[in-house]
Amino acid sequence: MCGIFGFVSEDKLNVADIIIDGLKRLEYRGYDSSGLAAVINSKIYSRKQSGRVFELEKVISRSIKSSVAMGHTRWATHGKPTNKNAHPHCDCTGRIHLVHNGIIENHKELKSKLEKRGHIFKSDTDTEVMAHLIEEFSKKYSFEESVRLTLESVVGAYALVIISADAPDTMIVAKKSSPLLVGFAENSKFVASDVSAILPYARRVVYLHDGEFAVITPSDFRVATLDRKKVFRSQELIEQSPVDLAVHGFLSAKDEARKNNFPHFMLKEIYEEPEAVENAIRGRLIVKDGLAKLGGLESVEDKMKRLNRLIISACGTAYLAGLTGEYMLEEYGGMPVEVEYASELRYKKQLFDARTALLSISQSGETADTLEALKEAKRKGVLNLGLVNVVGSSIARETNAGVYNHAGPEVSVASTKAFVSQLAVLSLLTLFVGRQRGMSLVMGKRIASELSTLPEKMRRVLKEAPNIKKIARKYHKHGHFFYLGRKYNYPVALEGALKLKEVSYIHAEGYGAGEMKHGPIAMIDKNFPSMIIAPSDSVYEKVVSNIQEIKARNGKVIAIATEGNKEISKIADDVVYIPKMLEMLTPILSASPLHLFAYYVGVMRGYDVDKPRNLAKSVTVE
Ligand code: M6R
Questions:
Q1: Phi, psi dihedral angles at 388 (to 5 degrees)
Q2: Ligand 1 centroid to 317 CA: how many Å?
């Protein structure tokens, strides 16, 4: 993963101010350590520090100015998150420094060859090998040629930025599989892992393609392929609002104020869930005709009519939204659906035919597993659709057509409002394909009209917060949890468990409630509580039986049930009520209490819920 930011300028810029600001905008990509390097009087100034970017801020000089500088915020892959493993890494002479996002797969064999030639390694990373390789080639070749030969020698993924004290005006950048772009301002050029870090300085950008490298000086910008072919890339104008700017990641210190009066982004974003759904459905519902209008799919509408299979590919919470979508699209949309972890799909034999489409779901639009699975499917000629939050992100750009969920910036690492907005778009998609293939006008109108009532009902659910907080207080010291649901609420149970794990580090398992009796029930005792989603729907009676099975074994039960259900309060230990809703849409109501519960438990256990340990907002390594 990791975030990269740098500049090359005709002027001498303040390194600390600009690089730290860029790194803070990219911190969502990793926050276990960070570092920066700048060319100053033909020498390299470099500092790195474990921990968040503000820790780096404490150890750097605030006054240094430079025309060539770069920084890195890390999410550890090879080597613990220590000072020595933080980037930048350098060669033996300390004159070549580089920052890297990605994984070098053949680093072990390269390292052992270099060690035999006398190179001394200072870190446990895969990255460092490239600094020593450039050093080795530099004995015979120019800086540019040494970088090119190094890139030819490595196997794996990289976004790379390299500077050398011997070429003090030059920065070389390269890309393969990991994102990298260059922004152009009047006197300066900026490089970054994503556009959010560049937009405060420049709106004209060039996205490097895989297998390309660029040489950047104050007066020049040249792109070439590894086999030395010149490439001309025209600049794209990014038209994003300040709100879009923040979508990609953590905001700068100044922007922290945008938490409004919420103690954490996670809580703020849970409270934004109704608005996120409102934004997802705005202008897309024609209730009187029972139709969904999805402008992003108009160009492929006819192709979609002919589909007989939809494969949904995603990771984490987006995958769980996809699982819920499978129930919706099959039952109401009449579309056969398979949902795959993107990380598995890429390596499976993909048996696609002309009537199959792939739908990639991603909040960030930058998740490497999802992006790579999509590229693989693209090579096979499949229709590629996207459901993405971040406008202009890699997945949004790679797909043939798609729908933005318009959830707004999601800053907290734990995804909350993006999940409910993904569900809202999947409901719209269900209506869209359903009406293409036999869904009646009456049913279309019913779904459209229920969808339009969601935001108001979600706001009612949030009024349950004090009750949920009280329940969290009662259970926050438990070490284990089951999350159970059936049919539409089975994926939501998985989402509840994932959220609790992420922000409270409690062991939580999600199961289909009916699956409990096939093994997991052995673990139930008075110390193993279960959160059970039990709205009054087509499987309610079955779920009640599952609750009874748990109660008979002294298990504690927290139930999420439909308003007016008195029966459940007699069997469950604690109840959170949600309004009555069309079964297909209940997951959008049952998600918020689970998000709130995880939030409160995480806070009560004293954790930084916005930036949980070991995680990153956007996972850009496979
Ligand atoms: O940006 P994406 O939606 O592609 O991210 C996918 C997962 O990495 C993400 O949902 C992750 O599981 C979240 N931390 C869940 O809260």
A1: -130, 150
A2: 5
